[in-house]
């Protein structure tokens, strides 16, 4: 018998859980119906009337359901196992009239129970639970009220009852005034009665004060109501709360206004008022905190109450937040799926600015308003939402690609589907971050894939590095060879079309000819004259230009093009100096074969060759540092583009690679102090080239004079004359004397230049060794790896060198580790 009863109780409990939100009340109601002993006193007419009522209720919904009910009822009548058929039908009708899973019928405030506890013969000792469970169901409660009102209150103390009945008129009037005061209605005799009654009355009247505050908050004329769609959502939720409050007060008033007051007392009303007082108090606190706020700031204000320790306050704030964030959900999904901002009241945390050109759309048109980001959404999610919408807009406007459906919409399925399984609101769903991240990754991959496939992003990145950063060595060397004669002219005599022809010749003669056509078509020559008024040569104004347009303008904006031009100018200058030094070495090698009979110039030529090698080593180290320093950053950039990383990441890696190039080329803002020192070194290297050209010209002129003199001697001897006259000898001695003076002066100039050059190199090494960038400290060590400059200058002592600095850091780390070990032992 016990297992059967347990099974029936479980089935009944499961039925009540499917049909009502108040499981305990519905279960007690079911037990009261099924345990009722009035089944035998009911006739078939009562069953027929009940079936007609059920049939008419089903017909209002679906005729098919009504026909099924008739069929099932006929089978039930022929079944002799079920004995309480009428009680079961009454229970099903009562359960169907209980509140369902809907916000409109959700019980937010307690149902007043002011009547005295009475015993009913048909429904023993379950009257309070029945009344709580069946509020709002008029057909069920009417019969119950009639049964309750017909009962009497048994009492063992007749004197106490008579005293109580004598005080009932005054008590009933106080109860009625208290009920009215709970809705903000002021009464005349509010201060009458004893002090305990006044205390109870004031506690109940505080509900009216809170009610008036909420009414003022949702009144458009008060100036306190929040603006915008999200503000309207909050106001609507508060109105729903007040509606449920009115419903509970109306039931309280109906019970207090019954014939004898229904057993209502101020103490019972005060007990009922505890829950509404708590709820209205926190509603008023939330309304006060939400004044003059809108959008995400309003949502953050309400979200603070969600983290409250009281479960009732947290549940109330969660309900309000769900209502007010529904417009935010609509704006969010519209932005994520279509890249459109429908925000008439400036409530969305993403802002759109007008008048932004297409090439700056990704950078400047949209931005996140930090103060509008809701507190339940982290900054990373806001950035991902911004990038996802920008990707959709970029594909539509810049790439002219608008698909029929958003390919990342399936990632937002958990965000967009309604809450039917009780998983919580969308803003507190566990998959919100994952859905946003998945949509962001899908949209970013699609955008970068379009840039790489249709707009050849990888080819253009590699072309910038090869031609503007001089990584294509054969092309750069051949171009410099072809342009040498042209660029030695003044800048005012150069023309772009002549230089363009030379550029095309260099492309055809080197490996650059195998580049794709979309790369070669964007490579151009440009001249950038200085505005300081000085006369420049062609080397100073010449520059290569790589023109990009369309969607690629986002990755290579005008500011980025200016940085490429500055880098090209600096690298081109160093490359030109190295090329000129190699050209001087070639001239020296050719000239050296003719100096067998001119020993007076051997020393100066050997000295010039040594200082030229020294300058070449410095230039080579500078070029290698500028190229190798950013090699890893460029490799990471190209790998990220090949793996379809998001566009913001590519922009960051691109700027970082340019920053590394700028640092190693010493044109970055962090290396401004080094620019002047490097400029002095490069200027002195150019002066060496000019000095060597002048020296070679003097030596060649003396060689040619001596060759002419030897030929003249040979001609005279052939004619039978004296080979050398006294006048010729005196003239030759004078010219040799002048040449020796020229060589001596050149030696003195070379000594001065050497001291100046090495002084500038020493100062540069010193500044590099003291710089915070580790790679520049390494460059200082490479420039003076043999301690040549340190031996010649007392400034470069060991405490200032890169090696000693690294050793000092190692020693400091060892000292810290020893100190930590000693502290642990203590």
Automatic annotation (TrEMBL):
Residues 457-789 form the Gamma tubulin complex component C-terminal domain. It is found in: Cytoplasm, Cytoskeleton. Residues 193-448 form the Gamma tubulin complex component protein N-terminal domain. GO terms for cellular component: gamma-tubulin complex; microtubule; spindle pole. It comes from the Eukaryota. It holds the Pfam family GCP_N_terminal. GO terms for biological process: cytoplasmic microtubule organization; meiotic cell cycle; microtubule nucleation; mitotic cell cycle; spindle assembly. Keywords: Cytoplasm, Cytoskeleton, Microtubule. Its main location: cytoplasm. GO terms for molecular function: gamma-tubulin binding; microtubule minus-end binding. Belongs to the TUBGCP family. This is Gamma-tubulin complex component 3 homolog. The lineage of its organism: Eukaryota, Metazoa, Ecdysozoa, Arthropoda, Hexapoda. The gene is LOC114252725.
